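We modelled the chain as a single entity of 606 amino acids. Its sequence is:
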Amino acid sequence: MATANINVNKQNVLQLLTSGQEIPFVIPEYQRPYSWSDDEIITLFEDLWEFSIERTHSDGAKNYFLGCVVSYEENGERQIIDGQQRITSLFLLLRAVFSMLEKEDNKTDEVNNFIQKIKPALWKENEMTGKEDRSKILLRSEVVTDSGNLILRNILESGEADKNAKDNYSKNYNKFKELYIQKSQSSPNQIYHFVLALLNYSILLPITADDQETALTIFNTLNNRGLPLSDADIFKSYIYKKLDDTGKKAFINKWKKLETDAEKANESIQSLFYYNMFYMRAREKDDKSTTPGVRKYYLDKNKNRLTPEIIDDLTVNLQLWKVINGREAADGEEWSQNMDIRKILDCLSSYTNEFWKYPVSIFFMEHKDKANFEKIFLKFLRKLYVMLLTRYLEVPTINAVKVDILKLNVQIINNSHPEFYAGFEEKKLEDEYAVNAEKARTDKLIIAPHKNMVRMLLKVLAYQEDTQTDLLPGYWEIEHIFPQTWDSKYYTLNEEEANEKLEHLGNKLPLEKKLNISASNNYFAKKKDRYKDSNIAIIKKLGDSTLDEWNLANIDTNDTKVCEIIKDLLKAWVDEYEGKEDSPKTPEATPEELAMIKMLKEKGLI
């Protein structure tokens, strides 16, 4: 394996930018648009200004470190991987300074000196005459989704920017000029020390690699201060470079729309690629528990996974996340009108990690066009909820579901009714004692659930109320009906017992944040009025009840009630999926019947 060639060479601003005479700077297609705003621009200028004052009034050549710039060389140009925001801003700042110096009526020796130094840092020079060609700028942006590339070029060439423009290039350039004018008027002697500090004593650390892969590796290991370069940006460039001019235009239009739609849906293209990776893995029958890095997966040289068509898959998949994240029906998605589907998706969204997303996304992509999609999707989501909930209650770790989820992903392909186990672990029970012990164990898991599962359980309980016709509010808090802090003068309680029961499911309800704050730690009689104002049916019902107090006995009673509701619901959803929902329910054996069965077994009669 060849050793990567990396060059690290500390340089001041003038040295680094002037090196563009030999190897010009390019912001590659896959980079994000220039995004620095007033905050960053003012901070940069003021920091440099304060630094220049410190240098003027103290001995020694102090330096101001501006950060790293990671790049690689390709076709005689320097492709910027990290530091594009700083480099672009420095070019704009230097152009603004040059413009101000050039307009000076009285060109002192200092002014002429700085003008001559700045020219080769902005424009290509003629080797024979030494004159600059202002049409040959040392920085070029090729960011495919940035409409300001031409604006940047015009500013650096002409030194003019529309004062009413809304793009960041124009606004930042004008801000630099404004700051320069303010400082030169208030401190006319210090302004030249500022230019000197900017050019000679502001330091960057350029790190240059000989290929893109090495540069990206370096970038990923640095604690940079700029916007991170996502895998999606790299994939965009990879696809874009393979297309002809017509294909490039169509692809960029699709990408821009996807980017806009994803932002509106509070989803990222990076995440869409990640979900799609699991879909592609499922189609490849890959159920390995080791999850590859998304970049490594898509850029595998032995596979052709990054094609222009992938953007169509991402666009389709985004429709699902529009509904989940937006928490409302989406145009053109008839299934999203089904409130039962939206309710169960909302319940799943409270799962403790992202493993619920992969089978949901795969099922949607694989079966969305089926005539009975609503029906099969709802049944699948409900059973998936049972699987995720019960597994985590029993073993509260990510590994509780990881292996089975990856196997389920593969089963979903070409199969709208995959077989998978859901429910509490079944054990072979020999006697009444074992049956009762197992029942107590599962009841306890529901009554005193792991904290990560409380929201999933409260949501599903809230949605069992017939009057809860809409989704719960996007933001709600867990309300302790019996307060977490109580007055021992009012209640004489065993503190250890009370503290345990306070965290039981039977003492919790979802409540809007505003009402939760006003309810505070008041006792039930005082909180009932707040409950009545809630738009959440299950808590409004409690507020309208005839109860006038809530104590530990009420928690015990409610524990039993909600436990039975949850268990019946989980069983009903599994039976529904298995097609058993219409079968008669076998009544549970009474203790007397169990004792009789045990006696008959002992006598060998059964």
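As a brief sanity check on the tokenised model: The mean pLDDT is 88. The first helix runs from residue 13 to 18.
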